[in-house]
Amino acid sequence: MNPWYLFGLEDARRGERGLFIITAASLAALGAVGLWNPHGLNETMNAAFEWVLNYFGWWFMLLGVVLLGFSAFIVFSKYGHVRIGGQDAEPEFGLFSWLAMVFTVGYSGSIIIWGVGEPVSIVADPPPDPAPVAGAPIESLALAFMYIHEVFPGLAMWYPPFALAFGLIIYTRGTDEYKFSAMLKVILDEDGHRGLYWIVDLAALIAIVGGVAAAIGFSAQVFSALLGSAFGLPATAFTYVLFAILGLVFLADVWLGLHKGIQNAARATIVLMLVSFAFLFVVGPTLFILNIGLDAAGVWLDNMFRLSLYTAPTADGNWPQSWTSFWWAWWAAWGLFVGSFVARVSKGRTIRETFVSLVFIPAGLLWVQHSIIGGWVLAPGYIEPVTDALNNGGIPAAIATAVTITPYGAVVGVLFILVIAGYVLTSLDSAVYILSSITLGDETPNARNRAWWGVLLSFLGVMTLELPVFDAMQAFPTVLALPFTLFLLAIAYASYVAAREYYHGELDHERGDAFITSYDPESSDGEDD
User: Fold this and answer.
1) Model confidence over 353-363: pLDDT tens digits?
2) Is the peptide bond before 234 cis (omega within 30 degrees of 0)?
3) Which of 170, 383, 421, 528 is deepest in the core (most CB within 10 A)?
4) Which of 201, 179, 213 lies closest to 18, judged by CA?
5) What domains lie within the chain, and their CATH numbers?
6) Sequence-ordered list of residues with C-beta below 8 angstroms from that of 125, at least 6 positions apart, any chain
């Protein structure tokens, strides 16, 4: 038997096998180091994180603004009417399934994890003087930063460029390979640049791995804290059991495929999420949630650009970069596979429809969710014990403490575990689908290769249970996404070129059809004579 068959690489070219081997080996080595020397890995990753923020924090902020402007131009110009997959393409999924997959792949358990962690952290450690918004209560300012980072403009900066690029170049213009590097063919011939193309695909795989591994790692530590503190169970052991169960469900999803596996997992996660936040709104500090949500929305909407570009240039340290630049780097790492996956499930939809499904609809839902979860932990009676837990045990301990002091906390804890598990599953499903597609250059990768990617990502995520500091995982997306940011500008330009060529090609085609239809040889002068 062909030894490559086991890895789903029997039909792959040498370069594609190299992509898989190098990325997988690096991933396995990083996981092994984390298990063997977690303190050393923790110190190394934190040092790299600080270096990137210190020297390149400004770059992530500036790039975000540029990409936001680019997306707005493409979406609201004449190119917004271009249909992904061509003007005759039909939607492959119903509205609910489509929106469910777009939302669950794009936003993950960070809604709960950072929805608690960021506002409480900012209240505990506010921005340096002078304050970015004078006179705003620190609780409202903290929640406003959360809106900036995960509602708007954050999600409009980083996901749409990838979705538009994949939709316009891979599915509408057409290419012979399903790879990130294929988007460069619009502006750069492959001849003489094959090495560059291979490096681009390798950098993309590594960046995706960094973003997804961080999300799985965050989730693993929150599982551990909830199981241990909220339910009094052996935390680490039960977390491994939980991930083993998720692994079995994941393998089932892999074999069921996109339409039966990933689609159904996304639907179930959306329902669980809506039930969880509705329940928390009812049993939590409802009136405070309503009031602070509106007050923070006023701070957010009135100071959106101020908060998005806040760098505190005269203050010591990297306070704004530790938040905004971290978020933008994580968005960039996730944008690689989220954008490509969204384009895949959005075939038959226009560019404008895809933007609405990816930005406007989720923004409304995210604002409600973050208002509920942020108002919950910032409320009097909650903020003090949650802050103490944050200072002593990090964000996972803060979440577990908030759950234990909430009425019907056991129900809230179970719902949170189920929701985060659903997000882990859907994110893992879609990430490995894209990782395998990019590796093989195939829109429908085989299940064996996808399963290997899932095992490797899960291994790296569970390894983070051994890391002594939760914050170390912030370095994964920030450090690994940095080399790929220049490619973002290249694919943005390539998207514009592809949209312009396709639009004018369709326009010329329509004019040609109109000319043929209007020309009737029977009515010519020659025939009349």
Assistant:
1) 888 888 888 88
2) no
3) 170
4) 201
5) 10-507 (1.20.1740)
6) 319
Among 358, 355, 335, which Cα is nearest to 81's? Answer: 355
Q: Output the DSSP codes for 477-501.
A: HHHHHGGGHHHHHHHHHHHHHHHHH
In DSSP terms, which residues pair with 350 in a beta bridge? 83
* Residues forming beta bridges with residue 83, ordered by sequence position: 350
Residue type, 354: T
Q: Is the dihedral of CA 227, 49, 23, 189 positive or negative?
A: positive
Instruction: Give the mean pLDDT of 82-98.
Output: 82
What's 471's DSSP letter? G
Residue from 490, 500, 496, 497 nearest 193 by CA: 490
pLDDT band for 254, please (50, 70, 90 cuts): low
CA distance 479 to 48: 7
Amino acid at 130: P
Q: Is 216 left (phi over 0), alpha (psi -120 to 50) or beta?
A: alpha
User: CB-based contacts of 236: which residues, under 8 Å, 6+ apart?
Assistant: 224, 465
- At 40, list the tokens: 């050393």
The residue to which tokens 């994180």 are assigned: 49
Query: And the tokens for 120?
Result: 């409480």
**What is the pLDDT at residue 159?**
84
380: left (phi over 0), alpha (psi -120 to 50) or beta: beta
Cβ–Cβ under 8 Å, residues 403 and 235: no
Pick the residue with more confidence: 59 or 529?
59
The pLDDT tens digits for 432-476 are 888 888 888 887 888 888 888 887 777 776 666 555 555 556 676
* Angle subtended at Cα 362 by Cα 356 and Cα 365, rounded to the nearest 5 degrees: 135
User: How far is it, in rounded angstroms, from Cα 118 to Cα 120?
Assistant: 6
Q: Kindly report the CA angle at 489 between 179 and 17, in degrees rounded to 5?
A: 25
Measure the CA–CA gap between 86 and 347, rounded to whole angstroms: 8
**Tokens describing residue 496:** 């514009």
- Write a three-state SS string for 76-116: HCHHHHCECCCCCCCCCCCHHHHHHHHHHHHHCCHHHHHHH
- Which pLDDT tens digit goes with each residue over 281-318? 999 999 999 999 999 999 999 999 999 999 988 888 78
User: What's the whole-model pTM score?
Assistant: 0.83
The token pair that represents 330 in the structure block: 């994580």
